[in-house]
Amino acid sequence: MADKNTFYITTPIYYPSGKLHIGNTYTTVLADAAARYHRLLNEDVYFLTGTDEHGLKIEQKAEKLNMTPQQYVDGMAADIQKLWADLDITNDGFIRTTDDFHEKAIQKIFQQFLDQDDIYKGEYEGWYSVDDEEYFTESQLAEVYRDENGKVIGGKAPSGHEVELVKEESYFFRMGKYADWLLDYYKSHPEFIQPESRMNEMISNFIKPGLEDLAVTRTAFKWGVPVLSDPKHVVYVWIDALSNYITALGYGSDDTTLFDKFWPANVQLVGKEIVRFHTIYWPIMLHALGLPLPKQVLGHGWLTMRDGKMSKSKGNVVYPDTLADRYGIDAVRYYLLRAMPYGNDGIFTPEDFVSKLNYDLANDLGNLLNRTVAMINKYEDGVIPALNSGATEFDADLVQTANDVIKAYNENMQAMHTADALAEVWKLISRANKYIDETTPWTLAKDEAQADKLASVMAHLAAALRVAAILLQPALTRAPKQIFHQLGLAESNLQIADLKFEDLPAGGKVVAKGEPIFPRVDVEAEVAYIRDEMTGGAAKPAEETEASYIEVPTKDLIEFDDFDKVEMRVAEILEVTEVEKSNKLLRFKLNDGTKEGRTILSGIKKWYPEYAGLVGKKVAFVANLKPRKMMGEMSEGMLLSAEKDGNVILTILPDEIEAGSELG
């Protein structure tokens, strides 16, 4: 099985019933960043994605378009592969469940389960959602329709899709037979499901109530893999779809070279809505086949809109190619990887997208590069000086920041905390910008006696940009190369493995005139453009849209002296834990700029079930609120948050604001 220097990562295979939006794209970009990172560590990487092409929904979709199912999925698969190529996705494999080798392997796998008595024939009766390709019991429905006599006649799945009553002969997998084994596996492999809260959800919601046997074939349609021994049955989605992760590597074929090399997978990325299938059904199937389980299944959150999940019917869908065509691939990739907190949902807004483009990419990174190239041309004849640290009193702190960032970045990337890894890179970028203001090169240039010090400053800025560019390679595919080019650095020896600030090559010739790698955009115009694209050209004028959001209630007006009594400061979250015997409170350990720090209890547990992802964030808090006892513990202040329509969101501040800073 997989050796120590391999890395196998997968995305779910996408159902090609419609065009993929930016929420679907996040998973693939996240997987690509991980694959690129591990290649830069000199590991042998295999990155798999693909399409799940069978099922009733595809059959019906093709019929409406007067096409065969195969013709329909061929076109959709081509579109998806083009999208991934346009976004610089570096997948090594792309599997389609209509691939001949996959279908043959599925038939072998099904027959093995039959021979082992893991599968038996019975009859299924229950509620089925065509859109979800999933069966539901009455108790699992989000909404139930009844006739005048109270009889259930229909309903909606948790996804909001309509269900219909299905009664047909089916084969069932004996999932309940493996429930105890699975629980024991969870206990002995706590790292298997990430974030950890997903494991608790699986145990509480699905395993402890009793794991039901799973219907694994259908007879009501033909677009699927036929069962060899009973061809009127086609293999239902989960055996067919889930097995792609091993059939793509050659499992069940005559050539198992890739399977022997890369299985088990290091990370399998899935959206939180399909965690159950990947952490209950999939491990049980693998165990029944006598195969090792993936080392980790990571169930990430959704990229949502202000009004909930993306939906064409709501007019709130954003497509990645639309954004990439206008703002560039790097802007889209950066936004997706930076805006999504680990394990939690992220919220897309046009304002946030444009803000990250203008401030993070154009101002922070782009401006640092522009200033550095211009100053090296002006003060050093365009040649990067040798790096000799210690010439200014600020050198040591910049070098230490870089070394700390490299270490923290690697820890975060290894753990798939990509947003936090990028936040670390921006710590270095912010520190380098501050370094310019501290060393004032324009002042040093006026004194010939300061020539060596000025040269050292230029070298330190080039070194900081070099480190940032190398660390950004997994996330951004174009900008790092542009940074290397503008600094005159060869695109060799740019591995993240063994990266050191001090390894700046001297003598590189910067370009004569650096072009902005991320031009600033007009905020109002671009926000309006994105809104218009989201609504298919039916967006209201900006002023009308803004005015119609919400009627904001106000409290009684206060005097300035009343406001001046409130002391609001910035803190960094060091640790978040649950308060025992409380289903509301979380305990926050904060760095508030003081030696002692402080603890604040906040009743936001409901809105932050993946609270571990808050560690390292900067938040606003009321510092001079009288301490009070809650559940037997002292709370020393209050975290500031926003509340609307019953949703609570912490006020997260930019990373560059120092803990202890006063707000006002």
UniProtKB/TrEMBL annotation:
GO terms for cellular component: cytoplasm. GO terms for biological process: methionyl-tRNA aminoacylation. Residues 562-664 form the TRNA-binding domain. A motif ('HIGH' region) lies at residues 14-24. A motif ('KMSKS' region) lies at residues 309-313. Its EC number is 6.1.1.10. It is found in: Cytoplasm. Keywords: Aminoacyl-tRNA synthetase, ATP-binding, Cytoplasm, Ligase, Nucleotide-binding, Protein biosynthesis, RNA-binding, tRNA-binding. It catalyses: tRNA(Met) + L-methionine + ATP = L-methionyl-tRNA(Met) + AMP + diphosphate. One of its GO terms (molecular function) is methionine-tRNA ligase activity. Is required not only for elongation of protein synthesis but also for the initiation of all mRNA translation through initiator tRNA(fMet) aminoacylation. Homodimer. Belongs to the class-I aminoacyl-tRNA synthetase family. MetG type 2B subfamily. This is Methionine--tRNA ligase. It comes from Weissella cibaria. The gene is metG.
